[in-house]
Amino acid sequence: MTLRKLINSNRGRFAIIFALLVMTQVIDVASTYLFSPMVNQVSAGRFNIFCSLLLIQFALALVLNFAFNGANYLFSKQTQQYLHGVRDRLADHYYQQPAGLSEMTNHFSQDLDTLTYDYATVLFYLICDVINALMVAASLLSFHWLLLLASLLTTVTSFAIARLLEKYSNQATDQLSAASQHFLATIAQWTAGLAELRRYFAKGPYQKALLKSGQELADRQVSRRKINSQIHCLQSLSNALGTVSIPLIAGFLFFKGQMSLGGVITSGYFASSIFSVLENIAGSYSYLNSTKSLRQQLSRLQESKKNDNLQPVNRMAQIEIKQVSLTHGKQLLSYPDLTIHAGEKILITGDSGSGKSTLLKLLLGNLQAEKGQIIFKDAAGQAFQPDSYSIGYLAQDLVLFPATLAENVTMHSPGLSANPKDYLETVGLQLDPQRQITPDDLTLSSGQKQKLALARTLSHGFPLLLLDESLSAVDRAGQDQILRTLCQLPATVIFVAHNLSPEQKARFDREISLAKREHV
Hints:
The chain has 520 residues and is α/β, with parallel strands linked by helices. It has helices spanning 3-8, 11-33, 35-43, 47-96, 101-143, 145-164, 166-191, 194-199, 203-255, 261-290, 292-302, 356-364, 405-410, 420-426, 446-459, 476-486, 502-505; strands at 310-311, 318-328, 331-334, 338-341, 345-350, 371-377, 383-386, 392-394, 464-468, 492-496, 510-514.
């Protein structure tokens, strides 16, 4: 988020906002400037003229109020329009490159809130203050150049303080963002098992974990405020000296006969105003800079770039697995050298912990081997990098969506919406395609959920299917029906299972049994 990007989100509206803000600050300075002739008129005994000037001042205050609130409203719309674009680009990034739930939630909530309140809102008032400072500076110059010089020296000092301490405020903002992400991750990890915690009366560890993570977040929030308050305190000391210097200079000029009494009083008002404004500007500058690294991080996330080297997996003629091994947790997993040809139906078996699911994740590209290679080759024997999203993958942790059964199968693909019932029947699921479900729908059995997820995978015609215990909750008759269908597909099928009968195993071209490895 930058001022330029915020302006470009709607240039016409921002032009109106800026015009209204200039109007408000011109009116504010003009209203203050009227104090000089008002004092002079009172001194001269011209009460009628004094009252007229007072009425003008009141009218200006009304116009200022309407213009400022209008600008504030329009700027809020401008900010939300820009942040809506940020959310859209972040959503696109995470669609291409998924991350942990806590990271995504943190960016979509805490970090965007930080941009709203510690950048956009601060920026709005900064623009007001800068315009006001320029107007007041011009007014001080109209009285005497020494008054302007004193204000400039104070301004330089105040901004130098903010610049010198910028690094610490940036660090505090980054630490707050990290603490927020950790807190969200803690919530997600513990609340996922609330039912089990209640079953075993394990409230203590749950509360302790949340309180500890929550305290870390609170500490980071306090730390950030503390650093910004310290910067603000130093800037206030500098501005206090400036506030005293201008009336002192104005009094000196009055006794020298170079300023009127009204000018001295008005310059005092302007001194108080400009240093209050300069204090706000310096504070705003510190707050804006404290979000710099966060804004840069979010900008990088919005620059989603697709890998043009990825190729559709339908080019595949064979997959070669050569001397592949990796450490998974504390266990060393190594795999036999394999060549899988297009169209083959491969059954992967082995004890729990032997690396069956890990092998599928290696093939998908979700995990990288520490040693060895997995090579996809086309018919000409040329290696290529496959697009993982052209591979049908069904993990043990099923994903269902709050939609109809048909929409869960077709995933809103227009080319498939006409026959979702056929795919449901293919996996033996005799349910109304228009039935509405939720991700944790208790009216569907585990076997039905597996069938639904499998129907989705089959319906999209993936040339390579990686299926991880996809029939573990399905009854024997249902397994037979689905395995018969799978083994008749033209696609390459790599199926992980551990409880198939000899007759079911015989449907596959090959069975590869993985042995459990020793701990490292």
